[in-house]
Design a protein that fits this description.
The complex is a heterodimer of chains A (about 500) and B (about 475). Chain A has about 500 residues and is an alpha/beta fold. Chain A folds into 2 domains: about 280 residues, TIM Barrel, CATH 3.20.20.70; about 180 residues, Formaldehyde-activating enzyme (Ribosomal Protein S5, domain 2). Chain A has 16 helices and 16 strands. In chain A, helix 3 runs parallel beside helix 4, helix 9 packs antiparallel against helix 10 and helix 11 crosses helix 12. With about 475 residues, chain B is α/β, with parallel strands linked by helices. Chain B has 2 domains: about 290 residues, TIM Barrel (Alpha-Beta Barrel), CATH 3.20.20.70; about 160 residues, Ribosomal Protein S5, domain 2 (2-Layer Sandwich), CATH 3.30.230.60. Chain B is elongated, with a radius of gyration of 28 Å. Chain B starts with 11 loop residues before the first strand and ends with a helix. Classes of the chains: A alpha/beta (about 500), B alpha/beta (about 475). Chains A and B meet through strand 12, strand 13, helix 13, strand 15 and helix 16 of A and helix 11, helix 13, helix 15, strand 11 and strand 12 of B.
């Protein structure tokens, strides 16, 4: 029968596997990531789902496990992801993990071909013979099979070396069934970031999380708060993280975590193809992830000095900079930015933005527009500092559209301006010199005002940053040109 | 006991919409009669209070009244009454009403909302079959019921003398084939999914109950005849020409989309009942515009012809609407290029102008974004949302876009093909890294107002854009 070791508790990051520009395992970057995380974690998982195990060849997986054990050097336990579709390959990898000194193996349900429950049971029984601690791993959204509680119960309690289960299904009733059946006998770990507080409160011993690559310290606070019965604090911090983790869990975990780490200054590269930037991890979510990492309670992206070169005049500002933020920014005649936020479809926001100087093309266009057509053509002067013209992309026809555009979308754009003044992208020293034209789209069938407002806030905030930072970059455009998916290119 | 074989389900039956009056949402009986008179010559019978007829929004009395009206108008053709309900009790009441009102058969959907077990499902239809003396058509539509009527249950129900058919709207052909395999000797299967009529008939379905059979019943009569005669190639061609409309009716709006199609054909059936919206809900504006064009293509609606032309004359003179006269273009050394590609409806002309952001072109660019020109809105060129091309490029249609579908041709295929051509030129070095930072472009696009094939349009725009960029940046 299984058992529950004392060491198996707390917060474990499911480590990403860094790749270099030539798509090879970047060992140096991986070691750096482990050193960055070690002070804030109770253990690590190597070559898990977030570690893109299914994209690593057998030798690479072994190397990743080996390097992890070496770099962690006994400070915390090391779980090694060793699951594979066949029992044969899983046996080989698990034996390897045992031999190089990993603490336990995390073994995903055999996937792709769908073995029956008794075939799955025998898969784990074969591994049990290796005499090495095993953690079962339920992740039906990837593996395609959901353990039932009776299978899990059988495997957890009958097999000698099973020490616990990681459940990433997000299925709280399933976790409650496990608590009912095996609580205290083996370890229960939650792997779905969105429900950690609930799962810990239900009785889980810890969490193995993709987002613990980014915010392990916040997860520690949550874990310890639940352990001492302080649910109020746990809920508060879970709430602070919820948007960040929803982006990661729902939208392409590996790429999202990697881009987050890159924004924090850790070089980990991209996911291997076919996962790609701007794919499952949508471009607008990337902007949102960045904002979440800037939150004071999270504090992973900090303000850094940037110089705005206005040709003869320099303005110094501090912005939450990422690797793509130039340290010196020129070309202020006219900067072009675009922002997009959704869903829902009818309430999507799309902002075409121009930022320039008041005595340049943008400023002159605003003055001319105010003189020549003004409100009757739909444009309004939204703010004086910076001088901002708000323009509807499509002609406003109905009262409802009028309300949604001039009140709700306008409020969102205004909020974005305010936030961009506060975060330093629109420096106080430049507010009298800058001119902005925000051309914003509100769908004629939009109805949810709050969404129109928030989506326009997000779209405008993105557009401001992208215009100033000169994004998308040449590399982004060229590398994604062929695969770009324009949503309106196809027939219904 | 009656001879249930007298009712023959092997034909084309429209699942009629239910017309409502504006404001009051009352059933519009006159409109219903008009609709029936319109379709009757082309159909083998009528179906009232089906899914397309918004049956869950109708009262018992209304459902009964629809059967009565249909009987009066049907000229002896059979009326199939929708008698589906969540509870057996209500389904039986509806079935008795329908029998009294003169229905020839009942269409009874799987009980919904609460999900009974197989036993419950069997009992539901069994009680119903006992309660009335009418042929019963079972009805499987899991996409709205969230439950499949199991083949094993149908197998047993088929032994009841008055269970004569199954209407299968699932679109799940393996399921349809399984029912035919086990029950085909005892009941007829009617296809209820407009997108797969030909394969379903070829596989052994006897007829059809379709939403689209009130919009283009003649097409379906032809399909039925062709398949019966074994002329599959011709049947496929018929199916293919209504494929997009059938898809829209099945997936993007259901009865709401059918009402819009009927309205375009001159049959105003009013709005759906709330919470459904006539347009702007499940049926979006773009799709409504698409329906119109498809009806034109089928010859059910005359095409709207209008006067327009591709811009001609010296290239430098085509940018007047941007406030850029030939002299200014020459003085400031702006770069121009033009490209034309494609045939017929998909012939496209692009006139392109490029220049530094801090010059007259930058002024024109900023100016274009200060007001919406109705039907000719300027758009920033993107590969996809979030991937704005560089140099920054505005796309302007030269012709006014009359509806959202036309606009969609510009901001979908045209925009994305132009974006691809620009980024490729950047990668090839035709557009320099310096120009990427310091220049901007405006592209005037002339696209045929009735352009229909997005793929063909995309290819034309891509070719035209390559040519225009090559000409403008050839230095």
């Amino acid at each position: 029968m299984g058992y529950k070791p004392d060491w198996f508790r707390g917060i474990y990051p499911a480590l990403v596997t860094p790749f270099d520009r030539r798509d090879r395992f970047d060992e140096a970057a991986y070691r750096e990531l482990i050193r960055f995380l070690l002070p804030h974690v109770d253990g690590v998982l190597a070559a898990g789902t977030t570690g893109e195990f299914s994209y690593l060849d057998r030798e690479e997986r072994k190397r990743v496990i080996e390097v992890t054990v070496d770099e962690v050097a006994g400070h915390v336990p090391v779980l090694a992801g060793t699951g594979a579709p066949s029992t044969r390959e899983t046996l080989e990898l698990t034996a390897f993990a045992r031999d190089v000194g990993a603490t336990a193996a995390l073994v995903v349900a055999p996937y792709y071909l769908k073995p029956s429950f008794n075939e799955v049971y025998d898969h784990y029984r074969a591994l049990d013979a290796l005499d090495f601690p095993l953690v079962l791993y339920n992740i039906p959204q990837c593996a395609g099979t959901h353990y039932r509680w009776w299978t899990a119960e059988g495997m957890l309690l009958d097999l000698e070396n099973v020490i616990g289960i990681k459940d990433s299904s997000g299925d709280v009733p399933f976790i409650e069934s496990l608590v009912e059946k095996v609580y205290g006998q083996v370890a229960l770990f939650v792997g779905c970031d969105e429900i950690v507080t609930a799962a810990l409160a239900a009785g889980c011993d810890g969490a193995i999380l993709a987002s613990a690559n980014l915010v392990p310290d916040v997860w520690q606070r949550i874990y310890h708060a639940v352990q001492r019965g302080d649910l109020e604090t746990a809920r508060y911090f879970q709430g602070r993280l919820q948007k960040l983790i929803r982006i990661i869990v729902n939208q392409g975990s590996t790429q999202a975590v990697k881009e987050g780490l890159e924004m924090m200054g850790l070089r980990v590269g991209h996911s291997r193809h076919p996962i790609m930037p701007g794919g499952a991890f949508r471009r607008e979510d990337r902007e949102e992830l960045r904002l979440q990492l800037e939150l004071p309670e999270v504090g992973k992206i900090l303000p850094r000095p940037v110089v705005y070169d206005l040709g003869g005049r320099e303005v110094h500002t501090q912005v939450p900079a990422i690797h793509q933020t130039p340290r010196r920014i020129s070309g202020w005649a006219m900067k072009v930015g675009e922002g997009f936020a959704g869903p829902p479809f009818q309430e999507i926001a799309h902002v075409d933005l121009l930022i320039g100087l008041r005595d340049g093309p943008v400023g002159r266009a605003i003055e001319r527009a105010l003189q020549e057509h003004g409100p009757q053509r739909g444009c309004v002067l939204l703010e004086e500092r910076p001088r901002t013209l708000l323009v509807p992309t499509v002609t406003i026809r109905t009262e409802r559209q009028r309300h949604l555009f001039y009140e709700r979308a306008a409020a969102g754009v205004r909020m974005a301006l305010q936030a961009s003044i506060e975060d330093g992208f629109l420096p106080q020293a430049l507010l009298d010199d800058l001119a902005l034209i925000a051309n914003a789209f509100v769908h004629p069938a939009a109805s949810i005002g709050k969404r129109v407002e928030l989506n326009n806030y997000k779209a405008m905030r993105q557009a401001i940053r992208k215009a100033i930072e000169g994004r998308p970059t040449y590399e982004e455009l060229v590398s994604e040109c062929a695969a770009a998916r324009h949503p309106f290119r196809y027939a219904p | 006991m009656r001879d249930y074989a007298r009712f023959d389900p092997r034909g084309v039956f429209p699942a009629l919409i239910t017309p409502f009056q504006r404001k009051t949402e009352e059933v519009d009986e006159e409109a219903f009669r008009r609709l029936i008179r319109h379709v009757l010559p082309h159909v083998d019978g009528l179906v009232t209070s089906g899914t397309t007829g918004e049956f869950p929004y109708l009262s018992r009395a209304e459902k009964r009244r629809l059967v009565e009206i249909a009987r009066e108008e049907a000229g002896g053709k059979p009326v199939i009454a929708g008698a589906g309900a969540s509870s057996t009790r209500e389904a039986v009441a509806l079935a008795r009403d329908a029998q009294e009102a003169g229905a020839a058969a009942l269409l009874v959907v799987t009980p919904f909302f609460l999900h009974p077990s197989e036993k419950g499902l069997y009992q539901h239809f069994y009680e119903l079959a006992q309660a009335v003396d009418l042929p019963i058509i079972l009805y499987n539509i899991p996409q709205v019921m969230d439950q499949v009527l199991p083949r094993t249950v149908i197998e047993d129900l088929a032994d009841l003398p008055n269970v004569v058919a199954l209407k299968d709207s699932s679109g799940d052909l393996p399921y349809t084939m399984e029912v035919l395999e086990y029950c085909g000797d005892r009941l007829d299967v009617l296809i209820g999914h407009d997108e797969i009529v030909v394969p379903a008939l070829a596989g052994g379905c006897a007829g059809m109950i379709l939403a689209s059979a009130q919009v283009y019943p003649q097409v379906w009569q032809k399909v039925l005849r062709l398949v019966r005669e074994g002329r599959l190639e011709e049947a496929r061609a018929e199916q293919r020409q209504v494929q997009k409309l059938s898809r829209i009716f099945c997936r993007y709006g259901g009865g709401v989309a059918v009402k819009q199609a009927l309205a375009l054909l001159g049959l105003d059936m009013g709005p759906p009942r709330r919470p459904l919206k006539a347009v702007g809900g499940a049926l979006i504006h773009e799709t409504r515009a698409e329906i119109r064009l498809e009806l034109e293509k089928l010859g059910l609606l005359p095409a709207e012809e209008e006067e327009w032309a591709y811009p001609s004359g010296p290239l430098e003179e085509r940018f007047g609407l941007l406030g850029l006269a030939p002299e200014a273009i020459a003085t400031h050394g702006l770069w121009v290029g033009s490209g034309t590609a494609g045939e017929g409806l998909h012939r496209v002309q692009l006139d392109l102008i490029a220049g530094p952001k801090d010059g007259p072109l930058g002024e024109a660019y900023a100016w274009q974004l200060t007001y919406p020109q109705h039907g000719r809105e300027a758009l920033t060129t993107i590969l996809e949302p979030g991937l704005t091309v560089r140099p920054a490029t505005l796309l302007l249609p030269t012709l006014e876009q009359k509806d959202l579908r036309q606009a969609n041709m510009i901001y979908g295929p045209t925009q994305s093909a132009l974006a691809r051509a620009i980024v490729e030129a950047l990668e090839e070095g035709t557009i320099s890294p310096l120009a990427m930072e310091e220049a901007c472009m405006i592209v005037l696009a002339t696209v045929h107002p009735r352009a229909l094939d997005r793929h063909a349009l995309y290819q034309s725009v891509y070719q035209a854009a390559r040519a225009a960029i090559a000409q403008a940046f050839r230095r």
